[in-house]
């Protein structure tokens, strides 16, 4: 991956605002920013949080080197005084929010960033870039996993998006319930299960399909998965079992009527004695195609394009808004936009979820001053949704790395099970639980 600073993965106006704020003195005002979405993608019942761990990884490297500073200076994006400030920059604020794998809804305070205006404003674009994409992929992945029932789903979407987002998508897919990825860099960086065997070109480069199968088995063993739809599926399955024997690990089907073909292949494999050979299907699958395959004898799925594009919702429309700031007298003051259709709720937030008969029935967002929120007591049984990720510049490593990803993977299943069963419907509908906002 290209060597770059996350501090440059931003919009120019973050730096021009910083420059102006340093000159007028407001850069040092304490502020609270909040990331939320005003609405879920049309028809979706819930969203899944993903990307927080990547934010923390990026925050560790969020500084500018000499070349970056020279670029900002040469382009006259910021003044010499701001360059000097940036040379010493280190995020010293605090970040809290919803953990990865948690469900979110309209107006859920998914992430809250507290610090000076100068340091908080620099994070805006990067945080939104990560959360908007990763949450979209994890949300789509969760719907697909629901549709697949107990059959594992694997990420095979790297070639359907750009090379950087492919890595992010692999990680987000696992948070969303997937079991592995074809992307080796994602597997290397995050300790994910890597999957993959051969493409059609491997069969085509050999003089016969039998030669290709023999070569693959010699290299990968009898437990490998052979791609059987390059020519004639029935002949390929017959050849595969002849070459590998009944110990053949699996076959993959990548075209045609997948349900009908899987049924025929299953019957053929059983007739040939390969009763333990698994069937994997691929080919532009989405949650609706997976639901249609529930009765087919398929053992696992490889999902590509629809996964990495959020299955039609490639962004969660999340925004980063200032909700509280220090005024000229040094007193923290709630602030809000009043723009038509874009109004915001002033003040920092608490977030809880209430339950009835062990099922979530409402998302509760409580807004107020720091003192008001400290004195607030939620009702019995409400779950606190906010966790601390960064405390005065100190990152909690609990939320980073492979173990954090797998914990998020497990937590998503738990959190989804706590929602009403309609959350798992693929039919279009409203968010499965309402969000109630209270301003203290």
Keywords summarizing the entry:
7-stranded antiparallel sheet, 6-stranded parallel sheet, 15 helices, TIM Barrel, 440 residues, alpha/beta, 20% strand
Task: Note down, in words, how this protein is organized.
This protein is an alpha/beta fold. Among the domains are: 205 residues, nicotinate phosphoribosyltransferase, CATH 3.20.140; 102 residues, Aldolase class I (TIM Barrel), CATH 3.20.20. It has a 7-stranded antiparallel β-sheet. Strands 7-6-11-10-9-8 form a 6-stranded parallel β-sheet. β6, α6 and β7 form a beta-alpha-beta unit. α5 crosses α6 and α10 runs parallel beside α11. The protein is globular, with a radius of gyration of 25 Å. One of its GO terms (molecular function) is nicotinate phosphoribosyltransferase activity. InterPro entries: Aldolase_TIM (IPR013785), N/Namide_PRibTrfase (IPR041525), NAPRTase_N (IPR040727), Nic_PRibTrfase-Fam (IPR007229), Nic_PRibTrfase_pncB (IPR006405), Nicotinate_pribotase-like_C (IPR036068).
Q: Helices, strands, pairings?
A:
Elements: H1 12-24, E1 30-37, E2 47-48, H2 52-60, H3 66-74, H4 80-87, E3 94-98, E4 103-104, E5 111-116, H5 117-148, E6 153-155, H6 163-175, E7 180-181, H7 184-190, H8 200-205, H9 209-220, E8 225-227, H10 233-244, E9 250-253, H11 258-271, E10 278-281, H12 287-292, E11 300-303, H13 305-308, E12 318-326, E13 332-334, E14 348-356, E15 359-368, H14 370-375, E16 383-384, E17 386-391, E18 394-395, H15 401-417, E19 435-439
Parallel strand pairs: 6-7, 6-11, 8-9, 9-10, 10-11, 15-19
Antiparallel strand pairs: 1-5, 1-12, 2-4, 3-5, 3-17, 12-13, 14-15, 14-16, 17-18
Helix pairs in contact: 1-5, 5-6, 6-7, 9-10, 10-11
Domain Nicotinate/nicotinamide phosphoribosyltransferase: 153-324
Pfam families: NAPRTase, NAPRTase_N
Keywords: Glycosyltransferase, Ligase, Phosphoprotein, Pyridine nucleotide biosynthesis, Transferase
């Amino acid at each position: 991956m290209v060597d770059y600073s996350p501090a440059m993965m931003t919009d120019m106006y973050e730096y021009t605002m910083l420059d102006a704020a340093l000159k007028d003195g407001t850069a040092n005002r304490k502020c609270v920013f909040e990331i939320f979405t005003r609405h879920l993608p049309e028809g979706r019942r819930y969203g899944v949080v993903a990307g927080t761990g990547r934010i923390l990884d990026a925050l560790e490297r969020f500084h500018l080197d000499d070349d970056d500073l020279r670029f900002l200076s040469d382009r006259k994006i910021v003044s010499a005084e701001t360059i000097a400030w940036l040379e010493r920059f280190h995020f010293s604020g605090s970040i809290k929010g919803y953990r990865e794998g948690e469900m979110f809804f309209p107006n859920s305070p998914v992430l809250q960033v507290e610090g000076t205006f100068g340091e908080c404003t620099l994070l805006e674009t990067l945080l939104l870039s990560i959360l908007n994409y990763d949450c979209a992929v994890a949300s789509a992945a969760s719907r697909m996993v629901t549709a697949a029932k107990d059959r594992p789903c694997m990420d095979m979407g790297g070639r359907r998006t750009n090379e950087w987002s492919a890595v992010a998508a692999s990680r987000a897919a696992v948070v969303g319930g997937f079991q592995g990825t074809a992307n080796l860099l994602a597997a290397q960086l995050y300790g994910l299960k890597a999957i993959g065997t051969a493409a059609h070109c491997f069969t085509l480069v050999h003089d016969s399909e039998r030669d290709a199968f023999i070569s693959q088995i010699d290299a990968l063993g009898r437990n490998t998965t052979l791609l059987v739809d390059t020519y004639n599926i029935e002949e390929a399955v017959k050849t595969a079992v002849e070459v590998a024997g009944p110990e053949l690990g699996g076959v993959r089907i990548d075209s045609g009527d997948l349900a009908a073909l899987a049924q025929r292949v299953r019957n053929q494999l059983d007739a040939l004695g390969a009763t333990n050979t698994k069937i994997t299907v691929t080919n532009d699958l989405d949650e609706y195609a997976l639901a249609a395959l529930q009765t087919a004898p398929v053992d696992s799925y490889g999902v590509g394009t629809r996964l990495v594009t959020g299955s039609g919702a490639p962004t969660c429309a999340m925004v980063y808004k200032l909700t509280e700031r220090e005024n000229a007298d040094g007193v923290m003051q709630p602030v809000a936009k009043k723009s038509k259709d874009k109004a915001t709720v002033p003040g920092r937030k608490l977030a809880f979820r209430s339950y009835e008969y062990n099922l979530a029935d409402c998302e509760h967002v409580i807004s107020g001053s720091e003192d008001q929120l400290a004195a607030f007591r939620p009702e019995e049984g409400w779950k606190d949704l906010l966790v601390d990720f960064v405390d005065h510049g100190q990152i909690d490593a609990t939320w980073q790395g492979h173990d954090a990803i797998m914990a998020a993977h497990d937590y998503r299943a738990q959190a989804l099970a706590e929602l009403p069963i309609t959350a798992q419907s693929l039919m279009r509908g409203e968010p499965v639980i309402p969000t109630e906002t209270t301003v203290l």
